[in-house]
Specification:
Blueprint lengths: L1 H25 L23 E7 L8 H14 L11 E7 L5 H10 L2 E4 L33 E5 L3 E3 L10 H4 L2 E2 L18 E2 L1 E5 L19 E8 L3 H11 L11 H8 L9 E2 L6 E2 L3 H5 L4 E3 L8 H26 L1
Parallel strand pairs: 1-2, 1-4, 2-3, 8-10, 11-12
Antiparallel strand pairs: 4-9, 5-12, 6-7, 8-9
Length: about 325
């Protein structure tokens, strides 16, 4: 009987030790690496209040258009005098999926970008699209986990910058969090995990629904936004809510992937309706009037489509980037 008690005590002691050890290693103080980052990712993030982030996927083909576009965006936000951000208050991050090559990540670091290697967001079996590379697009949702920052502005890489985006963090629409609307209980499905009590998600209406290239400027507001330009207050509870929604079959249309998910979660009639940013911050389906009226960012694959005037400007920015980086390389050698 005594022997059995001693064995039971030893087992209980061992289990307690294992539990304490596991909890210590799982606690934030035990490791400085956030859970969204890859195991081999070790570089610290810049310590600023705000961040502008973009996302680069591993390309399934030999097309390097988005890699080049990411370099051009980096140049515009970090080095070009007319569009660069204040580095003391705003960081520029390039989130890279697991399939981005080591060579490309190193080039981006040399360009001055902060490369953040993140784990791909796991997809449920029913989420698919005819465009192979779109399967990685959900990885941009990792910005919701990046609570190191007070606010993050996400921008797709295929964007021409024409003004100073750092001022967007001073806008009244993004300075305060919004409460979840408990009055809309019929919109709060219990199988989607608890709703955050407060949150921030702001975006721009998508001009696809107001004439595409023929949209007016200023444009009309629409029920849907583009997921190529949005601003969030990072919140891990919100990230978990997004994952919960993804677990339900056809809760949103999977064809346009994360854009459909975000438009569902932050739908205007829902409990967390998205906030409309001022039209001068971004335009989809951009035209020349958007440029003339001072829209600060134009979202389009301008290396092969869009108005010729805008294409010419983007190509000039690309040439500026190449010359700038070549001069930096030569100066570093000499």
């Amino acid at each position: 009987m005594i022997l059995r008690s001693k064995v039971s005590f030893a087992l209980a002691l061992a289990l307690s030790f294992l539990l304490i050890t596991w909890c210590w290693h799982s606690s934030p103080s035990a490791s400085s690496k956030p859970p969204y980052r890859l195991f081999e990712s070790s570089s610290p993030l810049p310590s600023t209040q705000y961040a502008i982030a973009t996302f680069l996927t591993g390309q399934a083909t030999n097309d390097d258009s988005y890699f080049v576009a990411t370099r051009v965006l980096t140049h515009q936000l970090l080095h070009a005098p007319a569009t660069r951000c204040n580095s003391s208050s705003t960081s520029f991050l390039v989130l890279c999926s697991q399939d981005v090559s080591t060579e490309q990540k190193e080039i981006l670091r040399k360009d001055g970008a902060t490369v953040v290697e993140v784990q791909d967001v796991p997809l449920n079996w029913w989420i698919y699209s005819g465009v192979q590379r779109w399967k990685e697009q959900f990885t941009k949702l990792r910005v919701f986990e990046m609570t190191e920052y007070k606010r993050i502005l996400f921008i797709d890489a295929d964007t021409l910058i024409t003004g100073h985006l750092g001022d967007i963090f001073d806008e009244p629409e993004v300075n305060t969090l919004a409460p979840t609307l408990s009055s809309r209980k019929e919109q709060m499905r219990k199988d989607e995990s608890p709703f955050p009590t407060q949150w921030l998600f702001a975006a721009r209406s998508d001009n696809q629904f107001t004439g595409e290239r023929e949209h007016s400027t200023p444009p009309l507001q629409t029920p849907s936004f583009s997921a190529g330009f949005f601003l969030v207050a990072p919140d891990k509870e919100m990230y978990q809510h997004l994952l919960a929604v993804m677990s339900h079959f056809h809760r949103f249309d999977p064809f346009t992937m994360e854009q459909s998910l975000l438009n569902y979660v932050f739908r205007r009639e829902g409990a967390m309706p998205w906030r409309e940013l001022h039209w001068k911050w971004s335009a989809t389906w951009p035209n020349e009037k958007d440029l003339d009226m001072g829209v600060a960012s134009l979202h389009e694959k301008l290396w092969n489509t869009g108005p010729q005037r805008l294409q010419n400007i983007w190509k000039n920015r690309k040439d500026e980037m190449i010359r700038f980086q070549e001069e930096r390389r030569v100066n570093a050698v000499t």
